[in-house]
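Q: Entry one of two.
A:
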Amino acid sequence: MDEFTLSGLLVLFSAVLPCLVLGYFIAFQGRRGLIAGWQEDKISDPEKAGRIIGISLMIMSVILAIITLLWFLHFFTEDELIYYLLPTTLLPLIASLYVHIKLKI
């Protein structure tokens, strides 16, 4: 295996799949306890907040998979990879800030 294949598989199994599964559990199964520091009594609409955070986590994992696939196919270099990954990983943080500002009691 070359380094691109190994790195792609590492990202897939250590980041994409866990984020996709946890995002699904949070958004659609109602397991909001998986969110770090979650306190239901401090959110005005916990279901909506969990759905926003879970979906943002799922979107991040799909975008991360696409970026990793494009990197594997040599569409961009490792240096450019950072410029695509950083905004992608900030998506759940932005969703959490949105929930904190809009849905807090």
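Q: Entry two of two.
A:
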Amino acid sequence: MENSTDRTTDGSDGGRDDGRDGGRDDGRDGGRDDGGNRTAAQPEETTDTATDTPAPAPTPDEPAPDKPTSDPTPDKKSPHKQTPRSRTLRRARRTLLAVALVLLLPLLAAETALRVNYTGDPAEGTRTRGQDAIWLGHAWVDGRKKDADIEALAARLRGTGIRDLYVHAGPLEHDGTLPASAYRGAARLIPAVHRALPGVRVQAWLGDVLATESPDGLRLERAATRAAVVESTRAVLAAGFEGAHFDLEPLHSGDRDYLGLLDDLRALTHARGAVLSVAAHQIDPLPAFHSVWGTLTGHPKWWSQAYFGEVARRVDQIAVMSYDTMQPLQSLYGGYVAQQTSLALEATPPTTDLLMGLPFFHENRFGHWDHAETVPAAVRGVRLGLSRTDADRVRFGVALYVDFAATEADWTAYREGWARTAPPE
């Protein structure tokens, strides 16, 4: 979930004047001779003789008459003659057209491929393997949720294939520390979940905004910050959580400090018999796309497939945030999810749980269109990608983001399309 810290608090020129001036004076000057020249004032005749007499010279206060021209027709330029300005404009238009084609043709080709990727039928058996998860908001550990809420959640999840709950216990401070007050309700929640849902694990969802694209945020390049994150993880495990799920964003592809942090966290969690889990960025839909996008926008968004694999080999569980994809249609979004599923399966070792995110939230903004990014499209895309790449992968599932924004339609699509269970009574 991009900018997940904004979605974890559980609540979350038509006046243009086109009038024309009706008072325009279109009158013509009648004071012109037959040659189109303005005539000078003539002196009053004093005799009735027909003899032509020369006109007197104009007085100092009287303007001289205009001299008629021999050719009143203005010189016209040849219609085929180009001015420097017209040549510049033509070159500019051609350049813009070439740039548009360079940008649009690959995009159209990629979108067409996504649409084709959404065709066909998923293989039989590409359903839940009992490895699914759901992100839960902070209300579950800050005292807002009561025992009745836990029972209702258990009734909804029972028999669906959900095994892990990522309960928001952060966010981390920018220095990597975490106050115990942030998850003060864990001691009540975790035993209650175990009673209502035996075998379901409760993990602490920890995250923060990284200072990779702005001056504020958590800085992984600082050794003291990484050490503080490890100590915060030690504290949540001591509080009873059975794993730590990290969502640090925006995390750029190739970040070695992140890999070093995962190595330290893995040593800690495995020593405690706990799970190390991460939320992962999407994989480059085209080769090196994160580098191109980062150069154009300053936000490289995707990871290379190789980097995704490096992360996956260091954790027990990796959940792809396969939403906020900028796709405008369900078919394109579903084809995109199918592609991401295949890419992630190729990069993830079979010893690591791979989960594909489902959009259990509804927003309309740049990057996410609610009419396109639907649960049915995501489920079909996941099944298609799984069918084509590794239909028998055991350690595979879906992760639902997020409980407090989900609708009944989302739950129905998950149950019928993936879990194949009846709705709770």
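A: Comment on entry two: The beta strands are 132-136, 162-168, 201-209, 243-249, 275-280, 317-320, 353-359, 364-365, 368-369, 396-401. The chain has ten helices and ten strands.
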